[in-house]
């Protein structure tokens, strides 16, 4: 009996020494599932949630345009678009900024919904298709620095 008690006590003490280590992990997961009647999204070769780098041409000292494609479809009607704010990129200290021109399907997006142009006709929008997104600097003078900014676009489709 005494030997059993000693053996059990030894196991209890030994198990207290062998403490399991724990690591917690969190994974952020999202899904953007568009309706079948209307959507404007990125093509599979880029992600709007990631920073998109505008190319710098060191030879000519010019900032190049960012060119991507958007997938769009609407069985509701034509697709219009506009910007929520002035499209600019600026340095962290705000000392320098570069105005941007934003085009979708070769049509310039204005700031505000009141003058939103028709970007894609109802007939063209009826079937999913890729349309060019073109974000270019407005100007030719660029001060050195690291520039960042957000281009906030809104797309709408309303029955004619």
From TrEMBL:
| Annotated Gene Ontology cellular component terms | pilus
UniProt superkingdom: Bacteria
Where does the signal peptide begin and end? 1-20
Q: Which UniProt keywords apply?
A: Signal
Pfam families associated with the record: Fimbrial_CS1 (PF04449)
Task: Write the protein's name.
Answer: Adhesin
Organism of provenance: Bordetella genomosp. 9
């Amino acid at each position: 009996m005494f030997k059993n008690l000693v053996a059990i006590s030894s196991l209890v003490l030994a198990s207290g020494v062998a403490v399991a280590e724990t690591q917690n992990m969190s994974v952020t997961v999202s899904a953007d599932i568009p309706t079948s009647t209307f959507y404007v999204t990125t093509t599979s070769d880029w992600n709007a949630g990631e920073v998109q780098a505008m190319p710098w041409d060191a030879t000519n000292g010019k900032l190049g345009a960012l060119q991507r494609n958007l997938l769009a479809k609407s069985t509701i009607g034509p697709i219009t678009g506009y910007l929520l704010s002035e499209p600019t990129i600026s340095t962290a200290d705000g000392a320098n900024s570069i105005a941007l021109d934003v085009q979708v399907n070769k049509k310039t997006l204005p700031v505000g919904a009141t003058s939103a142009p028709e970007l894609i006709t109802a007939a063209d929008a009826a079937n999913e298709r890729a349309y060019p997104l073109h974000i270019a600097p407005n100007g030719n003078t660029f001060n050195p620095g690291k520039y960042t900014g957000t281009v906030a676009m809104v797309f709408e489709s309303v029955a004619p």
